[in-house]
Amino acid sequence: MKLTDNVLRSFRVAKVFRENSDKINCFDFSSNGETVISSSDDDSIVLYDCQEGKPKRTLYSKKYGVDLIRYTHAANTVVYSSNKIDDTIRYLSLHDNKYIRYFPGHNKRVVALSMSPVDDTFISGSLDKTIRLWDLRSPNCQGLMHLQGKPVCSFDPEGLIFAAGVNSEMVKLYDLRSFDKGPFATFKLQYERTCEWTGLKFSNDGKLILVSTNGGTLRVLDAFKGAILHSFGGYNNSKGVVLEASFTPDSQFAMIGSEDGKIHVWNAESGLKVALLDGKHTGPVTCLQFNPKFMTFASACSNMAFWLPTIDD
Question: Which family does it belong to (predicted)?
């Protein structure tokens, strides 16, 4: 089944899970699309089975809190940042609920975490104005970049380069093998006083970069030239909430939630809005991602919703 405008417009909430007492701050699908794991401000980690459509397990990180949870490539392991005591990144085995390793180094809150799509490398960005490069097999930082402001960062789909959004006005592209030589490309965008960048993602075909903000604007950039191809607005975000935006796996559509619980979808090529979906969320849709393998997506406030299409175009 192929994603089309009509199929996207037909999506409806199939299941709602009320496992959390506070907002879900992050979730991540496994690469095979079979499970999704969430982190919440209530200090819990909830693992869901996407095929059966039900929660499987709940773990807690009460001492440190939990945010920015990401699957690694090994089955049943995740990395996540702390939102309580310290700014150490933790590597957890879900199998026995034990920490495998800690990654100390940042001295302010970690605001970005991206796992390499191909190996055990990951990058983190922090309010301490640094991006750190890590390897899951070593607690020592493998690389450090000092920046001029708060960073957002992400790997490209090949895992060869990563992009850093700096100070809400610049995108710098680094080659992973020679990042210490500095960025090989820098795109300067017009600085916006009204909002900060909160996220950066590549499309799966590697051609586009999606920059989300804590305002009412979402941007699609050409990943090679840095030109702004589209600016999407018209969704509610008056309180400066961090709303996750995502591409669909086919790179054809971009989507974002809003503070009124609705989900907006645009065609990434034409820039036209194709759908406005009502998830009946009780709060802002802070997390939104399409399943990498199956025709379903998930959205979250303090509740988690699984969506399915109601037509097969």
Answer: Belongs to the WD repeat SWD2 family.
- Which CATH number fits the domain that encloses residue 16? 2.130.10.10
Structural domain boundaries, residue 27:
5-309
Q: Find out whether 82 and 105 touch, Cβ atoms under 8 Å.
A: no
Find the range with the poorest average confidence among 78-87, 88-97, 122-131.
78-87
pLDDT at 279: 87
Which tokens go with 209?
């970069």
Q: How many domains would you assign to the chain?
A: 1
Residue 194 has pLDDT above 90, yes or no: no
Q: For residue 118, what pLDDT is reported? A: 94
Q: pTM to 2 decimals?
A: 0.94
